[in-house]
Amino acid sequence: MLPKLALYFLRLGIIGFGGPPAHIALMRADLVDRLGWVTAEQFNDDLAVANLLPGPTSTEMAIYLGYRLGSMPGAIVAGTCFILPAFLIVLALSVAYVQLGSATSIEALLYGIKPVALALVISGTVQLGRPLLTGRREWMLLFVAIAGVLFGALDVLLVFILAGLALLIISSSGRALVALVVASPTEPVARAASYVSSADLALLARVFLNFLKIGTLIYGGGFALVGVLQQEAVRNLGWITQQQLLDGIAIGQSTPGPVFTTAAFVGYLVAGIPGAVLATLGIFTPAFVFVILERRLLGRLRANTSVQTFLRGVNIAVVAAIAVAAAQLSRSALVDGLTVAIGAASLIALMRFRLDVLWLVVAGLVVGIIRLLGS
Asked: How many other C-beta atoms are found inside a 10 Å radius of the C-beta of residue 12?
């Protein structure tokens, strides 16, 4: 079974455009309907738990399915093979970006893709927020979280944890202790990572530890990564500029496989190929750990209402971080009337007509090529 898992997830990592929803739909169509490796009930059960865990949902689904079909070796093979093609593609594009990034041709090609990427971020914010913001207390928590992200005194991931605890306490203070027990394993990780990262250590160690912290505590999938990188890599650490982050989003969204491989782009800009490797290892390692631990030790937590309330509060803070990032990134993406038109059209296409993002990226690339040839 391990060779079959390796071949299937390598293939999915190569053809899997469209982000987590597309990846999960492909897995279900192939593994449930076409190959019959798992039942619909098993698939839905794994998906429900993957949605509760921090980290990249579609990658965790690959790990879950690999574990179900091949125990721990299957989990490692499935997750690694799903990540590897996207990592190699993003790394190759990152090398080209750094080598040619100052050239006018590169900027021209990305000209039409950047407003598409911004539209995707805005669309993702709405999609994440719509089922969460159902009452006055949720909206109040959103505005408080936005203020917390903008103020910048707290680590953005700490804002996520505090929002989860706040909603839990508001909802039912008698069950707050359960959430504190659940949240406590992640808090020492955040404190330790922040302490080590602030010390005078090698740059590669800082890259790995910061992305390990992000992978451990991030909720909301690839869209949440945008908000976290805006705060961590751009504002707090100054590793990259807003312009480079937007370029990284464009590259990540125009390539197949997990969106979290955008970490490789940032890692490469900071510390070359070793930085890309360590950033990828850091951000994806927690997904493997969480899935294997959940399978072996934490299965009872999936139905716990306190856990679900805590995660709901976290996700509201995630929406706040993405909204702030979108507002800040708009200055780099919307530079003239044409980019505003491309962004608006892309947003309508995504939210009204549910058009596949790949076609929008291609259209943005075409606009860039035409503009370059005409100049």
From this structure: 22
CA dihedral 228, 233, 235, 240 (to 10 degrees): -130
> Residue 29 gets which letter from DSSP?
I
Contact 283, 214 (CB under 8 A): yes
From residue 192, alpha-carbon distances to 159, 189, 212 in Å are 17, 5, 11
Distance CA 232, CA 288 (A): 23
Q: Burial, 87: exposed, middle or buried (Cβ in 10 Å; 0-12, 13-18, 19+)?
A: buried
CA distance 226 to 316: 15
Residue 197 is predicted with a pLDDT of 42
Question: Whole-angstrom Cα distance, residue 288 to residue 298?
Answer: 14
Map out the domains of the chain as residue ranges.
Answer: 2-83, 111-374
Task: Give the H/E segment covering residue 317.
Answer: helix 305-333
Q: What is the pLDDT of residue 152?
A: 64
User: According to the model, what pLDDT value does residue 112 have?
Assistant: 84
3-state SS, residue 164: helix
pLDDT at position 221 is: 67
What end-to-end distance do the CA atoms of the chain give, in Å? 54
Residue 295 CA to residue 288 CA, distance in Å, equals 11
For residue 188, report the phi and psi dihedrals to the nearest 5 degrees.
-60, -35
Spatial distance between the Cα atoms of 116 and 358, rounded to a whole number of angstroms: 10
Taking CA atoms, 15 is separated from 10, 110, 256, 281, 354, in Å, by 9, 22, 6, 22, 19
Token pair, residue 108, equals 């021209």
Q: Report how far residue 50's alpha carbon sits from residue 13's, in angstroms, rounded to the nearest whole number.
A: 18
Confidence (pLDDT) at 174 = 43
Q: Which amino acid is at 278?
A: L
Which of the residues in the chain have pLDDT under 50? 103, 173-200
pLDDT for position 324: 82
